[in-house]
Amino acid sequence: MADNDGFRNDWATKDFYAVLGVAKDASADDVKKAYRKLARANHPDSNPGDTAKHDRFKAVAEAYDVVGDPDKRTKYDEFRRLQSSGGFGGFGGGAGQPGGFGGGGFDINDLLRDRAGGGSGGLGDMFGDIFGGGGARTRQPRPRRGTDIETSATIGFVDALEGVTISLRLTSDAACSTCQGTGGKPGTRPHICPECEGAGFVVASAGGGFSMNETCPACGGRQLVYDEACPTCHGSGHGTSARTISARIPAGVKDGQRIRLKGKGAPGDSGGPAGDLFVAVKVSPHRVFGRKGDNLTIEVPVSFDEAALGADIKVPTLGGAPVTLKLPAGTPNGRTFRVRGKGATRADGSKGDLLATVEVHVPATLDTAAREALEAYRTATAGSTPLRTNLFEAR
Fold this sequence. Notes:
By secondary structure, this protein is an alpha+beta fold. It contains ten helices and 15 strands. Helix 3 (28-42) runs antiparallel to helix 4, helix 5 (70-84) crosses helix 7 and helix 6 packs across helix 7 (122-131).
């Protein structure tokens, strides 16, 4: 009975709204504002040695943990309504004594034994998550999203343009295979974490009178601690997982681009979603083609006479038939010609262009006929204006 009386006096009669200084019908925003104001004013870092304010800070945090959570607040309000209307039989029923919910042999001590971990079901389960009940069923660790994973992959030039599916071997954090992520030795009993009182986080000073929530260092955010730590992960709840996945690299990806694959990262904890996988793509260079944005580039060697007299020359395209490039007479070295629609595939399915730059080729050796022809050309153009005249103009 002493434990039951402690529960009645310590929890059932607490008015969390009064602790926060708000009305019972206060909005969630008003509750949050009141909590922040009181937390700043009573934070232990701002009031060293002031035991009264330290206790006040704990009371405010406890109250906000209940009425700041919509689910807990609804259950707490219902609990108080039943208490005030005598729905629990005034907490007076002893063993075998009628009371609560209109009699019927309901014993409040059964409810209290549930809270103490001696039973399950009924109101002990309904309100256990508010009051931090002893059984593992009264509070479940909140789901947590898995971490993101970074990796890299090298693909070919053509694969980057057309898209490709690749296999990736990944090693990442995962739930410990022995304890399934709980951090406890299998078969041992879980308890509400005494450090964070089951919240999964603790309030830490952020300076300037402000505070912020941080993951509880004692339970790692899992809200529960165990009698004995898992012998494999030593209580961390984490292990490693090696797996091979298929990843689709979209068409048009660029060298150095970072691709996000949603849900392909590390698995979550307690049913939480998996993280994402980020793949840094390295594209191998091509022997002939280059890339400039969504355009492909190619350098086309031409002879002196083709550039001087003009010519029709064939230029390759990537994965298609060659195209004919018409060089006008007098084409200078380095001129770039644009061939529409022969470039890289864009995200919308359209294609960029092929940029063909001509390079006038000077032969290293000449046969007799070619030399005589060039000497004749030199003689024929001897009277023309020298190309380098402007180099010597006075400044």
